[in-house]
């Protein structure tokens, strides 16, 4: 049966004729030497050229990487070998099992085997009808073979111990220019000038596949040990392909016994053999003793234990063989493209896209199905699933009745042990569904007809997660998986938690509940374990089911270090009260207390943490909830002077504003200090603060508006300071005492200042706000001038003896006009408006 390897093109690049290619062992690089005399390095991940070397004007026949030296060694037709700091080359191939011997291919139709210590060949292999272009050794340990490619359009496999030809591969129609044994897969690759690459089975020598990418003649084939990637060099470019899957063929049963396949050899290890004295570290390779279990008659492409672990099935080459897990004895075999186990130990095989067979536990055929669609894949578990390109159908194992059709592109399927949950993985996301077996049973027992869509309520979509699943397993109701970014995650109730970041590609084997560890395997068959507490999974599962009483019983068995993880899970479920009780991290607990509005709990945490940000957050919350005393304390602790200004001004707390003014000066917050002094009517202190802050021009302008008597003093200071920078500008400053004509209403402003000086220390009660609000549209100077006009035009009372106005009336008018304006007002309308705000009774004006 054919191998049926899936082949995907990973890289394509057009260029001059390619004479040789090579893959770097650690970097994602392809090296190709060209007929034009150049050597190019391509990055197949970035799909871009890394570097190019102009080697010669003649063709470069071979180029190779020397990774340990970071070299490229190139050999050209000008008879020179050049080292460019990256590669190695040649038509000579060394024996990987004996590095003192090598084989050379020649156009004299022979292949010679040489030793490094002798100038003469050990022997000659003669069998081709034309010149030999290429040679390669078999890298496996069981056969002393090498392969040659010739201009006679054939490739020959030789046994270099018996010096005989084992097999001749025929099929190419032109010269064969490249041959190789794949180091990982049981295949031989040949490339020819007919433009094709042919893939042959290395055991049966059967032609498996023919590749033709339309880039003219093939000149070189390259590979990298430990990888499924291959690179092909053509006349017009380079192609990289990936053959098969890189997931190691391995399986672990519920007791910790692992069986894996390396080529046709079957090996086993047991995790329980790791001694109790060995300290297992997360992410470290386990020191396991490998035991040879036997060999397999076919090349394994998949290997899987049955549910109870007694049997192991190996599938590959279009066939399957069932072995006993302990003695590795053959129990059953047959032809199949795919093989799956049921949850009860029965199994199904897919013979073709139109024929599925079901077998019982005694390996006897029980039923045969011919689906009405093309079944491209099948999956086992509680139900038998068959999928096409864009949908999946579930059938019961007993009568093969359709349970449900779901329109989704399926990459893999994972059933929970309980049979109630299933994860369907697609290329970009995965879905967790609940299987309602009771609904299905009652529907089928009722004798109702099942249409092409199946039972409508058979499945219920619980969660959708936008992550690609590489491999996955279920532990209870917890789905463990690694994603495309190689992070090890688990999902409970739709909440995804990242356990570890993997440093290389790894694949899930299983979970051992008695060790609370999940085990993975890498491509080199190293087994690695990570801790995942079973009690933590059980707790989250019970919370999801709503059984909080049992969940709280399990909680003490969870280590304290995991409590924050539990609290985050509870928060995601909306259980903030429970999360607050469990959380141990102070920052997280504070956030929960703030969300719940538990200010006393948050305050206790803030006192312990002494974090200004926490105090500020708590102060804002206390202010919004009306707890002003706590808000004041929190703002003091947070040193939030702006917040205190807002609080005191809103409360009309004059004493508080006085203290805040001193506090702000001490902390250098002059803007807050200025506002405090201004609200208190301490204009002299405001001006002095501006002078101390080197804001002398602003101090002069403020004095002009509010304290005209101080202007001359400040102008002198301003002149003295400005003369150090610009003497001419300093001389141009006008002093109102010297030039009163330049300042409008200067004498009136001085008079008003004296009149209202006694009013600046008084703070009217908040109850008088409406009276002041209606009189806030004029300044003191305007009010004083209006009062003078009234005095000039008011008629004289005939009863007055000296023709003077009634002093009581004047005083009454003056006091009424005084009430209309702010005690610190002057020339400008804005200042008058600014001072019109009012406070609570007995408190300072804000």
From TrEMBL:
The coatomer is a cytosolic protein complex that binds to dilysine motifs and reversibly associates with Golgi non-clathrin-coated vesicles, which further mediate biosynthetic protein transport from the ER, via the Golgi up to the trans Golgi network. Coatomer complex is required for budding from Golgi membranes, and is essential for the retrograde Golgi-to-ER transport of dilysine-tagged proteins. Residues 835-846 have a biased composition (Polar residues). This is Coatomer subunit beta'. It comes from the Eukaryota. Oligomeric complex that consists of at least the alpha, beta, beta', gamma, delta, epsilon and zeta subunits. It is a peripheral membrane protein. Residues 791-819 have a biased composition (Acidic residues). Belongs to the WD repeat COPB2 family. The lineage of its organism: Eukaryota, Viridiplantae, Streptophyta, Embryophyta, Tracheophyta. Residues 539-719 form the COPA/B TPR domain. GO terms for cellular component: COPI vesicle coat; Golgi membrane. Residues 263-522 form the COPA/B second beta-propeller domain. It is found in: Cytoplasmic vesicle, COPI-coated vesicle membrane; Golgi apparatus membrane. Residues 791-846 are annotated as: Disordered. GO terms for biological process: endoplasmic reticulum to Golgi vesicle-mediated transport; intra-Golgi vesicle-mediated transport; intracellular protein transport; retrograde vesicle-mediated transport, Golgi to endoplasmic reticulum. InterPro entries: Beta-prop_COPA/B_2nd (IPR006692), Coatomer_complex_subunit (IPR050844), COPB2 (IPR016453), TPR_COPA_B (IPR056176), WD40/YVTN_repeat-like_dom_sf (IPR015943), WD40_PAC1 (IPR020472), WD40_repeat_dom_sf (IPR036322), WD40_rpt (IPR001680).
């Amino acid at each position: 049966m054919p191998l049926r390897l899936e082949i995907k093109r990973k890289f394509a690049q057009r260029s001059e004729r390619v004479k040789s290619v090579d893959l770097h062992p650690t970097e994602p690089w392809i090296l190709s030497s060209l007929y034009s005399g150049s050597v190019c390095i391509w990055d197949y991940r970035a799909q871009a050229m890394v570097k190019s070397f102009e080697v010669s004007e003649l063709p470069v026949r071979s180029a190779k990487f020397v990774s340990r030296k970071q070299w490229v060694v190139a050999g050209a037709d000008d008879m020179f070998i050049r080292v460019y700091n990256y590669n190695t080359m040649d038509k000579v191939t060394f024996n990987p099992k004996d590095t003192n011997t090598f084989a050379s291919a020649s156009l004299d139709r022979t292949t010679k085997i040489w030793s490094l210590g002798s100038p003469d060949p050990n022997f000659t292999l003669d069998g081709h009808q034309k010149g030999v272009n290429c040679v390669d050794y078999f890298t496996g340990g069981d056969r002393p073979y090498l392969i040659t490619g010739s201009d006679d359009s054939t490739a020959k496999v030789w046994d270099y111990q018996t010096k005989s030809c084992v097999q001749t591969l025929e099929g190419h129609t032109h010269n064969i220019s490249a041959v190789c044994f794949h180091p990982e897969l049981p295949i031989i690759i040949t490339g020819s000038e007919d433009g094709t690459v042919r893939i042959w089975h290395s055991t049966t020598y059967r032609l498996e596949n023919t590749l033709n990418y339309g880039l003219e003649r093939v000149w070189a084939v390259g590979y990298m040990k430990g990888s499924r990637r291959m690179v092909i060099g053509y006349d017009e470019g380079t192609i990289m392909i990936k053959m098969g899957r890189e997931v190691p063929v391995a399986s672990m049963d519920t007791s910790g016994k692992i069986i894996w396949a390396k080529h046709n050899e079957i090996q086993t290890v047991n995790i329980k053999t790791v001694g109790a004295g060995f300290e297992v570290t997360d992410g470290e390779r386990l020191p396991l003793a490998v035991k040879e279990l036997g060999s397999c008659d076919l090349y394994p492409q998949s290997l899987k234990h049955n549910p109870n672990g007694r049997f192991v099935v190996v599938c590959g080459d279009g066939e399957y063989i069932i072995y006993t897990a302990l003695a590795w004895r053959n129990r059953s075999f047959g032809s199949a493209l795919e093989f799956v186990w049921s949850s009860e130990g029965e199994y199904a095989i897919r013979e073709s896209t139109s024929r599925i067979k079901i077998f019982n536990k005694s390996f006897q055929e029980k039923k045969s199905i011919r689906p009405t669609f093309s079944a491209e894949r099948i999956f086992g578990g509680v139900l038998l699933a068959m999928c096409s390109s864009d949908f999946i159908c579930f059938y019961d194992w007993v009568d093969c009745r359709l349970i449900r059709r779901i329109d989704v592109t399926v990459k893999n399927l994972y059933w929970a042990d309980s049979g109630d949950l299933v994860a369907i993985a697609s290329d970009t996301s995965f879905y967790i569904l609940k299987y309602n077996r009771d609904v299905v049973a009652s529907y089928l027992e009722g004798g109702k007809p099942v249409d092409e869509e199946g039972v409508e309520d058979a499945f219920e979509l619980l969660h959708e997660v936008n992550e690609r699943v590489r491999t996955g397993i279920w532990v209870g109701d917890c789905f463990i998986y690694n994603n495309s970014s190689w992070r090890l995650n688990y999902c409970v109730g739709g909440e995804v938690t990242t356990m570890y970041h993997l440093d290389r590609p790894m694949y899930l084997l299983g979970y051992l509940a008695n060790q609370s560890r999940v085990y993975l395997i890498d491509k080199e068959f190293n087994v690695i374990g990570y801790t995942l507490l079973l009690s933590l999974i059980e707790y989250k599962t019970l919370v999801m089911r709503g059984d909080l009483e049992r969940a709280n019983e399990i909680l003490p068995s969870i280590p304290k270090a995991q409590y924050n993880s539990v609290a985050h899970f509870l928060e995601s479920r909306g259980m903030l009260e429970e999360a607050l009780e469990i959380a141990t991290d102070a920052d997280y607990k504070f956030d929960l207390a703030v969300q719940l509005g538990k200010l006393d709990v948050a305050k206790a945490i803030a006192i312990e943490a002494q974090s200004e940000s926490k105090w500020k957050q708590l102060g804002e919350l206390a202010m919004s909830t009306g707890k002003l005393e706590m808000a004041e304390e929190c703002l003091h602790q947070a040193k939030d002077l702006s917040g205190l200004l807002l609080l005191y001004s809103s409360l009309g707390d004059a004493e508080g504003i006085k203290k805040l003014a001193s506090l702000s000066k001490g902390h250098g917050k002059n803007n807050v200090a200025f506002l405090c002094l201004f609200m208190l009517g301490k204009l002299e202190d405001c001006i002095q603060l501006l002078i101390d802050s080197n804001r002398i021009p602003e101090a002069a302008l403020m004095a002009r508006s509010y304290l005209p008597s101080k202007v001359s003093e400040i102008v002198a200071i301003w002149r003295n300071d400005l003369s150090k920078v610009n003497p001419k500008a300093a001389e141009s400053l006008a002093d109102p005492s010297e030039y009163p004509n330049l300042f409008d209403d200067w004498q009136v402003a001085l008079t008003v200042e004296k009149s209202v000086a006694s009013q600046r220390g008084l703070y009217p009660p908040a109850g008088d706000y409406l009276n002041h609000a209606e009189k806030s549209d004029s300044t003191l100077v305007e009010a004083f001038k209006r009062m003078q006009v009234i005095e000039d035009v008011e008629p004289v009372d005939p009863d007055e003896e000296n023709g003077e106005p009634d002093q009581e009336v004047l005083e009454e008018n003056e006091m009424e006009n005084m009430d209309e304006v702010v005690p610190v007002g002057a020339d400008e309308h804005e200042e008058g408006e600014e001072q019109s705000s009012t406070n609570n009774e007995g408190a300072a004006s804000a």
